[in-house]
């Protein structure tokens, strides 16, 4: 089969590779499409976790089952599936508490197993048992389903921190994740949703934020406080890979507000500096959020079915597998809101 193989940082080759045979507890998925996410872009530049090389990346994909093993139940040839990449062990302390996103032995399709930048994906028994492999709801297309994975993490984050009816929210980052936070916050009942960004604010406008701010030109904190009677927002979400935005978020929330560290930052520059007195005297909570659980992926698929999340607005560029590097360049240079790869 044809696949885009990550050989080492900065190098990806599209070539023919063997497809692992379908074992008794496995299935084979013909990939319809796979999105390029911010993590893919970082990993392409700096390397995969654990120093893994010669691997097929890609974890935001959907496809159709073309083969199942004799012991597989719940999946049949012809089923349309959406996959989220996290695979837990099921036995560690966190898994036993239901916190599979924090599994001590956390692994991922697209890192530890070959992912969706290929014509086919082999999904083994462990992935089927302890991963997130769900049927697409009736009415949700294969292309639309590719947005379910990133939407899952946004839904999980907002659920965890408590965004709900009447909340005021500042989102720092105008990429696809920032836009998803707008849509999910609205669906959760937020009354004020502000976004701060730079090069993709024009694309973010279609999602209906109450205020758009250019962080290079605008005083984000002053503008937010002016719209919240001087208090600041209830929640500020750092939906980008910038540690600099974290202090802005801290200054923009009200007393007892919550700063949500949603976006991962570069591995070679992870340290941040925050005003600890402001955190202390204003009783501000700094909350990290990572990944999701099964219910969040199912909720994302349902949100797409109901129309509270609109995938067609995100996929603004599609490339074939042979042109995947072009797609990575477009995503890195912010030439598209979200890039889709179709084998």
Characterization of this structure:
The protein has 343 residues and is of the alpha/beta class. The chain has 2 domains: 2-147 and 314-342, Medium-chain alcohol dehydrogenases, catalytic domain (Quinone Oxidoreductase, Chain A, domain 1, Alpha-Beta Complex); 151-288, 3-Layer(aba) Sandwich (Rossmann fold), CATH 3.40.50.720. It has helices spanning 38-46, 93-96, 125-130, 142-145, 148-161, 176-187, 201-204, 220-226, 244-252, 276-281, 294-306, 324-332; strands at 2-8, 11-16, 27-36, 55-56, 60-68, 80-84, 86-87, 107-108, 120-123, 132-135, 168-172, 192-197, 211-214, 233-238, 253-261, 285-288, 315-320, 338-342. The strands form 4 sheets. Strands 3, 5, 6, 9, 10, 17 and 18 form a 7-stranded mixed β-sheet that branches. Strands 13-12-11-14-15-16 form a 6-stranded parallel β-sheet, with helices on both faces. Strands 2-1-4 form a 3-stranded antiparallel β-sheet, with no helix packed on it. α9 (244-252) links the parallel β14 (233-238) and β15. The mean pLDDT is 96.
Q: Strands, helices and their partners?
A:
Layout: E1 2-8, E2 11-16, E3 27-36, H1 38-46, E4 55-56, E5 60-68, E6 80-84, E7 86-87, H2 93-96, E8 107-108, E9 120-123, H3 125-130, E10 132-135, H4 142-145, H5 148-161, E11 168-172, H6 176-187, E12 192-197, H7 201-204, E13 211-214, H8 220-226, E14 233-238, H9 244-252, E15 253-261, H10 276-281, E16 285-288, H11 294-306, E17 315-320, H12 324-332, E18 338-342
CATH architecture of the largest domain: Alpha-Beta Complex
The averaged pLDDT comes out at: 96
CATH fold description of the largest domain:
Quinone Oxidoreductase, Chain A, domain 1
Radius of gyration: 20 Å
